[in-house]
Amino acid sequence: MAAAAGFGSNTYRNGAHRSSLKADGKSLAANPSFKSSSSGASSSASSSFKSRSLQFRKSSPAALGGGNGAAKDSGGVLGRVRVAVRLRPRNAEELVADADFADCVELQPELKRLKLRKNNWDTDTYEFDEVFTEAASQKRVYEVVAKPVVESVLEGYNGTVMAYGQTGTGKTYTLGKLGEEDTAARGIMVRAMEDILGDISLETDSLSVSYLQLYMETIQDLLDPSNDNISIVEDPKTGDVSLPGASLVEVRDQQSFLELLRIGEAHRFAANTKLNTESSRSHAILMVNVKRYLKEKDPVLTMENGSNSHSAKTFKAPIIRKGKLVVVDLAGSERIDKSGSEGHTLEEAKSINLSLSALGKCINALAENSAHVPVRDSKLTRLLRDSFGGTARTSLVITIGPSPRHRGETMSTIMFGQRAMKVENMLKLKEEFDYKSLSRRLELQLDKLIAEHERQQKASDDEIERIQAESEMRIAETERKYADALEKERMKYQKEYMESIKKIEEQLVGDQRKHDSDSATVAHNDSYSNGEASATSEILKLHKLLEDESRQKEKLEGDIALLQSQLFQLSFDADERRRQLDRAGSGNDPNDLDCLTSQVKNSQLSDSENGEKASVAKLFEQVGLHKILSLLEADDADVRIHAVKVVANLAAEEANQQKIVETGGLMSLLNLLRSSDDETIHRVAAGAIANLAMNETNQELIMAQGGIRLLSTTAANAGDPQTLRMVAGAIANLCGNDKLQTMLRGEGGIKALLGMVHCGHPDVLAQVARGIANFAKCESRSSAQGTKTGRSLLIEDGALPWIVQNANNEASAIRRHIELSLCHLAQHEVNAKDMISGGALWELVRISRDCSREDIRTLARRSLASSSTFKAELRRLRMDY
Ligand code: ADP
Ligand code: MG
To answer: What is the pLDDT at residue 432?
Structure first.
């Protein structure tokens, strides 16, 4: 209890005479960090105020606002309400009135202590988080009291800066001074806004303010005075308090903010005038809302550059942090009864200060850790529920005057401050996911993607269309090329085919000409050179020839009839003479041969002398065959000729043939061919042999007697086509014998036949053709029976070219035989190759199509169809068969 030295005996400084440095041990104990200093932008004097060495309710090491981790720490960190005391300098009145008195307080700023003089000898000492002397600059007050709160707000916490004190002690000066004339005088609001504007990004963050006045439990909008009954809305879930009715003005710069403060101040003045009160009776509340978007490390939407998985990872709602700074310029804390002069009733007075006393009660309850905090008792406590005992960082500046006259009020203020220092808040980061923004961004991105997709779809459609067009073009081109190639190929084959046809035609024409020229030597001087006219004339000539021959035949028949009648006469005469001789009894055998000779001779010599009744048959019966045959060897050439003619005539009758042969007539005829040089004899004998050769037995006999060789020689020496005709006819008959094929060929029969064609006489050719046809028919038969293998002997002996040449001979007799020959040859595959190479196939095809005889056509067709070689060749020639 030592007297405080230096305070003098001035009793004005009243108060309990208590031990000094009572120091409200609780306060000291509750503020263990007061003396701990921390580095910071502010001076060391403010270090305790800014201290972050807070007590942690949880073991989280995160410092206040030290990182995003705080957002996830639902428990938050402890943050005690910080309290500074500010002493106003003596004002003019005090300088005069209190001139003789010492101040009621003594500050020890270095110790953050305040000594309140109780009386001349006793003081109470209080410690605060900061003690500002009357010389403290506005700047330092801001930095110590408000700046840490502002920083927290910028980090996403709620913050409160509040001034409490007796009217006239400098609350408004500390908080609301605009400092328009003197920059150094700017108060906390202005400086706070400067810091906020300097920190946020106007592009991404948002900043808005409301400015309100609370008077007699009514909230007025200082930015819109007509709005004078604003209600408080509390979120039942979070307990967050908001004033949806209050104007919320976006702030973009300091000037506009200053303007808002000026407007607010003017309205506050006007309102108080209207209400007949003073501004000191009302509470002014500035609310600054800072909404910040957390800077993301990853770009959120990377669809255009990245993969889907990457973008999916970054598709999370952005985080926004909403810090709210509340600056509260409270009504004067002096007791209402003291001021009294305002003429309010007690009830009114109670109402005027209801909020302030409610605040005191709440702080008391909080300081004492009371179970019940009467937050709902007033609008002020409802508005400030987050500032005391809530989640905000709160700084309180208590303002006091130096005058000992107001020692009681000062004391009361100090006690308020002391109690407020015990209030613990639980700071919580006001962080949330911005789903709206995410949704907006997603919508935006979706639109982008839709647009992009549409573009890509269009591009893809265009590409498909292009490819399709290109493909179609290529297909068309390929088809065109293919068609060209096909047409080319077709033309080539057509050309080849036409050339082949032309060649064949040329060959045919050539052959025809050759044949015609051959014919010309036999028939008449003729020219086949010119088309149809020549053909017609040729036909006419042939007709004429035929007529000539008919006439010749008729003449011959006449001759024969005459000869027969002569013979008849002769034989009659001879009989008569024999009878006469018999009657005369000469007894000598007449020389029958001589007799016959004379008869024959006579008949020849006296052609037209006698009757015509006699026939050769009669002669044959009367004279006897062997007598006639003997005449064939007569010395007289005429007799031989007549005799052979008679034999030939006899041989023409089938009934006589056997007898003639049995009597040795065949041998005689063959001998005539061998021995005679006379062509007439040759011709007639060959004719007779030909007749006899119709019989199979005779054929064998003829062959056995070397008939082929004889006939060949005869043909070789013949000059008369009729001789050749006879010889050819004989051989042709022999050709029809199955058994004699090999022999006939071996003896040169085929060659002999072919040798005769050079004469070109149609009759000869017809016989040759008949022979070949016979031969071919027999070969065909024996091939079918399997008795013959290998290719046709006709082909072997070179008959094919002539056959082909005459296959379309104008003479139907020739043509028919050759057509049949070709059909027979064609029936054997073994002949096919030669037939093709020899041009026979064409003839066969022609026959199969054009032949007037249906049976031959059918035969030709069947022959063609039965040969695979022919069929292959026809295919090769692209001939449809
Ligand atoms: P309150 O708002 O608490 O009623 P004011 O801020 O209106 O008090 O201050 C009353 C007067 O004191 C004003 O004229 C103001 O300029 C002056 N004043 C207050 N504090 C200081 C100070 N620290 N330095 C200089 N003048 C001050
Ligand atoms: Mg004021």
So the answer is: 84
For residue 292, CA distances in Å to 123, 188, 295 come to 49, 22, 9
User: Ligand 1 pocket, 89 CB below 6 A?
Assistant: yes
Q: What is the DSSP string of 136-171?
A: --HHHHIIIIIHHHHHHHHHT--EEEEEEESTTSSH
Q: Which residues contact 859 (CB under 8 A, 6 or more apart)?
A: 820, 823
**Distance in angstroms (rounded) separating the CA atoms of residues 483 and 693:** 66
Dihedral angle sign, alpha carbons of residues 376, 377, 382, 385: negative
Burial of residue 592 (number of CB atoms within 10 Å: 0-12, 13-18, 19+): middle
Q: Comparing C-alpha atoms, which of 222, 241, 223 is closest to residue 231?
A: 241
CB neighbours (10 Å) of residue 180? 11
* Helix and strand element counts for the chain (H, E): 37, 17
* Number of the ligand 1 atom closest to the C-alpha atom of 167: 4
Instruction: Please list, in sequence order, all residues whose beta carbon lies within 8 angstroms of the beta carbon of residue 171, skipping any fewer than 6 positions away.
Output: 163, 164, 165, 329, 330, 332, 397, 399
Decide: 169 in ligand 1 pocket, CB within 6 A. yes
Q: How far is the CA of 561 from the centre of ligand 1 (A)?
A: 189
- Please tell me the number of the ligand nearest to residue 406's CA: 1
d(CA 842, CA 836): 8
Ligand 1 centroid from CA 808, angstroms: 150
Ligand 1 contacts CB of residue 413 (under 6 A): no
334 CA to centre of ligand 2 in angstroms = 12
Instruction: Report DSSP letters for 287-356, one per residue.
Output: EEEEEEEPPPSS-S--TTTS-HHHHHHH-SPPEEEEEEEEEEEPPP-S-HHHH-TT---HHHHHHHTHHH
CB of 165 sitting under 6 A from ligand 1: yes
pLDDT for res 381: 96
Of 676, 776, 770, the closest CA to residue 718 belongs to 676
Cα 246 vs. chain centroid, distance in angstroms? Answer: 65
Note the helical H segments in 653-678: 654-662, 665-675
Nearest CA to ligand 1 atom 23: 88
Q: Which residues pair with 161 in a beta bridge?
A: 327, 395
* pLDDT of 56 over the 50 cut: no
Ligand 2 centre distance from Cα of residue 397 (Å): 13
At CA 620, angle to CA 619 and CA 625, rounded to 5? 140
Distance 164 CA to ligand 1 centre (A): 13
Ligand nearest to the CA of 163: 1
Pocket test of ligand 1: the residue of 85, 88, 329 to mutate, having most ligand atoms within 8 Å of its CB, is: 88
Find the 110 Cα to ligand 2 centroid distance in Å: 28
Tell how far the Cα of 173 is from the centroid of ligand 2, in angstroms.
Answer: 7
Which DSSP string corresponds to 222-247?
TTSTT---PPPEE-TTT--EE-TTS-
- 752, 731 in Cβ contact below 8 A? yes
Q: Of the bound ligands, which one is closest to the alpha carbon of residue 167?
A: 1
| Atom 1, ligand 1: residue with shortest CA distance | 168
From 182-186, 357-361, 552-556, 751-755, the region with the lowest mean pLDDT: 552-556
Q: What is the pLDDT of residues 361-404, one digit of tens each?
A: 999 999 999 999 999 999 999 999 999 999 999 999 999 999 99
- What is the β-pairing status of strands 319-329 and 431-433? antiparallel
Strand extents, DSSP E, 144-198 = 159-165
Q: How far is the CA of 260 from the centre of ligand 2 (A)?
A: 18
> Of 144-153, 402-411, 616-625, 793-802, where does mean pLDDT reach its minimum?
616-625
Question: Burial level of 863, CB count in 10 A (0-12/13-18/19+)?
Answer: buried
Q: Does ligand 1 come within 6 angstroms of the Cβ of 168?
A: yes
Which-ligand-closest: CA of 168?
Answer: 1
Alpha-carbon 805 to chain mean position: 66
Residue 173 Cβ < 6 Å to ligand 1: yes
**Residue 170 near ligand 1, beta carbon < 6 Å:** yes
